[in-house]
Specification:
By secondary structure, this protein is mainly α. The chain contains 11 helices and 2 strands, in the order αααααααααβααβ.
Length: about 290
């Protein structure tokens, strides 16, 4: 085994270029389009499950309001209204027991579609084959893992809501104690909470979604870069969507187009981050991950 190099910040530009070449050569636009397609199909089921998981503790109405508010700020009010309609239509169904069982199964299968596709893309980056030779078992286990990520996402959202609520509660008390100019900086803490959870989500996906066994040492730098690019793009896209209103060109389908554009962009960023993580691991963490599955 060759000696592992020590990362130096001066080597970052070369690493970024190598990651870009690897990313560009892996048909990222096609893969991101596939993920965006499955995201639209999975969105109602995914949102309903998140509402049920987080709402069971925090209250569905509160969680729904927070989610729709965030979506409205990021993609626009029209997209938020479209998702609100999806939630109402999905939640308002009254079916028999048999139909309910089928509906729950369909809900679970559909909600895992995005993570299932992302796992396939990450396995391709890490040159992995399914760990199970039986295709049915491999698909089933991948779906189970994908559902686990939905629960992780729900847990992160729940924790974020709790911390934000505590900050809001204590801010009313601190307002009476702290000087006004210092109190104004409390929003920075709220922002750092959001950044921290985005970082944890990307890091967890990079480590556990692929079939390869990848160390946290390999993941943390790539997750940090992906988080930074995601935040920059998030605010740029929010400005673009709310200022230029590209969805108006497509009429009634505009909201769906905006959702697909946003998911497609996020997928491009995530895939680049995964390629960067692979390049980083190959160069600086040799022997610290296992390829080829087990």
């Amino acid at each position: 085994m060759s000696e592992t190099q020590k990362f130096n910040i001066k080597q970052l530009p070369k690493l970024l270029v190598a990651a870009f070449k690897s990313w560009f050569g892996s048909e990222p636009f096609q893969r991101s389009a596939i993920v965006a397609y499955y995201a639209v199909l999975s969105l109602p089921a995914l949102v309903i499950i998140i509402l049920k998981v987080v709402g069971s503790v925090w209250g569905e109405d509160i969680v729904r309001g927070e989610l729709l508010s965030e979506i409205s700020q990021t993609i626009g009010p029209d997209a938020a209204d479209a998702i609100r309609t999806m939630i109402v239509n999905q939640s308002g169904k009254n079916n028999s027991v048999f139909a309910a069982i089928i509906g729950i199964g369909t809900l679970l299968y559909g909600s895992t579609g995005v993570f299932f596709q992302l796992q396939s893309a990450l396995d391709s980056i890490w040159e992995q084959e399914p760990s199970y030779k039986n295709d049915v078992v491999a698909t089933l286990m991948s779906r189970v893992k994908s559902f686990g990520f939905i629960l992780i996402l729900g847990f992160l959202l729940l924790t974020s809501f709790v911390l934000t609520s505590l900050l809001s509660t204590f801010s009313k008390q601190l307002d009476r104690i702290l000087p006004e100019n210092l109190f104004d900086y409390l929003f920075v803490f709220d922002f750092l909470i959001s950044v921290g959870f985005i970082y944890i989500l990307f890091a967890t996906m990079f480590k556990y979604l692929p079939s390869a066994k990848i160390s946290w040492k390999s993941v943390r730098t790539g997750a940090a870069l992906t988080t930074f690019m995601f935040l920059i793009g998030k605010y740029l896209l929010a400005w673009y969507f709310n200022t230029m209103e590209p969805g108006s060109t497509y009429g009634a389908a505009g909201s769906i187009i905006l959702i697909m554009l946003w998911v497609s962009y996020t997928s491009l960023i995530l895939l680049y981050g995964a390629h960067f993580t692979k390049q980083y691991a190959d160069k600086y963490v040799k022997g610290d991950y296992i390829t080829g599955g087990e």
